[in-house]
Amino acid sequence: MYAFFNSPYFLIGWLGLLVPCLLILWRDLAGPNAGLMSLMKVVWWLTVLYSGPLGLLIYWNTGRKEIADDHLWRRAFRSVAHCYAGCGLGEVIGVMIAAGLFAAGNWGIALTTFGLAFVTGFALTVGPLVQDGVPLNTALKDAIVAETPSITVMEIVAVTVDLNLAGTAGMGQVIFWSSIIVSLTCGLIAAYPVNLILLRFGIKDGMMDPRHQMIG
Fold it and tell me: What are the extents of the domains in the chain?
């Protein structure tokens, strides 16, 4: 398994899948779904960038105005994608800083990654709330209650997978980048049922139905 992810052919194959996915997303967001909210466009770009075909599949079935309905399972995928966009950014930056630049140990990588994931994850939630007129203290409290379970599960799984695959590998090693790809997607999958539960019990509001968020 290690040899598979440590092969340059893994990254070449991944890029071969990722580039068409990004082109399909670009064409759809520039065409029939150009009216989606800017925030969700950023979410979908990051989700597909992190998880390629899986990210595109989630967008295609839950994030477009063409969806037939908006059942709980679709709302949960949009919710986890929103969380994933921010947390994933923090994780990538954290791993690159801690492992890639400073060759930190496992605890250093874990703490740096967790910290940045929480900061970026909360920022993606708090920022739009404050922009909509919600007081900062209220927005922070809402974000802590709604996002902490999802971010925690996502990062525990993602960081564990990353450390087990790459350890303290440097940025010049194939396994460093392969482990980021694999760990991000594992975190996304692990956090999905958490978001499903949070939405089911009204702890999270979730993201707006894309059929109702079209602008312009």
Answer: 2-200
Residue listed under structure tokens 């947390």? 87
60, amino acid identity:
W
Which alpha helices (DSSP H) does 63-135 contain, by range?
72-95, 106-131
Give the C-alpha separation, 150 to 159, whole Å: 14
179: which 2 tokens? 């482990």
pLDDT (tens digit, 0 to 9) for every residue of the chain, 216 residues total?
778 999 999 999 999 999 999 999 999 999 999 999 999 999 999 999 999 999 999 999 999 999 999 999 999 999 999 999 999 999 899 888 887 778 778 888 888 999 999 999 889 889 888 888 889 999 899 889 999 999 999 999 999 999 899 887 888 899 999 999 999 999 999 999 999 999 999 999 888 899 987 665
For residue 83, give the nearest of 157, 20, 31 by alpha carbon. Answer: 157
Q: Do 10 and 175 meet the contact criterion of CB atoms below 8 Å apart?
A: no
Q: Rounded to whole angstroms, how far apart are CA atoms 40 and 209?
A: 11
